[in-house]
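Deliverable D4.2, example record:
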Amino acid sequence: MSESQTPKGARFIKADLHLHTPESYDYQDDETEPDDLIERFVEENIELVAITDHNTDGYYEELAEAAENEPVTVLPGLRSRRVKAVSIRFT
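Output generated by the structure prediction step:
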């Protein structure tokens, strides 16, 4: 595991918060399976990923399912093409 801890208990992990999958139109290898990606994350000690495919969330559930028994947390991300100004509020 790639974590380190500070004297006050903060924990640092390796994360990729902007990740594309075969669901994105510009992904290079559309033969890649969810298990392949999870295996690579484990090899690289990446513990947290956010899926930010172009205008789709179609691969999130497959990848999250593949990570269920692995030390990787998969988050849904958001990447959309903006046509006009949009305001998103989180409360």
